[in-house]
């Protein structure tokens, strides 16, 4: 059996000198303490007070998941502000999709935007359904739902230019194939 060689003990000051050159990531709780106010200010600048509190919470929940993989050299404050900005945008987008309160609820359901069930297989909707998938999706998302091409590209895949091209091709095919849809 070989004898075990022990390393000589180093002094506390030598250990501190070694650690000085190394950057050690601070605990996440300290990050929240240090940058919480800045993140809240960003959220409040973009959102109403109650929404800002929700966005602040969502920011730190998201950051907590990603913090272990964050490089030690990263600018933590800038990283958190970017997350807060994106969470605020998410809140604003979700508000646009929520129903708007009205004084009176309509007695009968509206048929606005709904094809006539008696003629559902005729005309425009039949021509739209005949489009290739990407063209049909791009036309529906842009012209019916009002989404910008960048979001359409994220949904159906591809680039913004490809989404724009698919929508343009879809409209061209509708004009060509739909009776009365444009110049022949």
Short description:
By secondary structure, the chain is mainly alpha-helical. It is 61% helix and 0% strand.
Structure, described:
With 184 residues, the chain is mainly alpha-helical. It folds into 2 domains: 26-96, Rna Polymerase Sigma Factor, Chain: A; 117-177, Winged helix-like DNA-binding domain superfamily/Winged helix DNA-binding domain (Arc Repressor Mutant, subunit A). It has 8 helices and no strands. The protein has helices at residues 12-20, 28-46, 49-66, 76-96, 123-129, 133-144, 149-156, 160-177. Helix 2 runs antiparallel to helix 3, helix 2 crosses helix 4 (76-96) and helix 7 crosses helix 8. It is elongated, with a radius of gyration of 28 Å. The chain starts with 11 loop residues before the first helix and ends in a 7-residue tail after the last helix. The model has no long low-confidence stretch (mean pLDDT 81).
Roughly how many Å apart are the termini? 96 Å
CATH superfamily of the largest domain: RNA polymerase sigma factor, region 2, helix turn helix motif
Q: What is the level 1 CATH name of the largest domain?
A: Mainly Alpha
Overall number of structural domains: 2
CATH topology of the largest domain: Rna Polymerase Sigma Factor, Chain: A
CATH architecture of the largest domain: Orthogonal Bundle
Shape: elongated
- Strand % is under 5%
Q: Specify Rg, calculated over alpha carbons.
A: 28 Å
SSE class? mainly alpha
Unreliable segments of 5+ consecutive residues: none
Largest sheet: none
Number of strand segments: 0
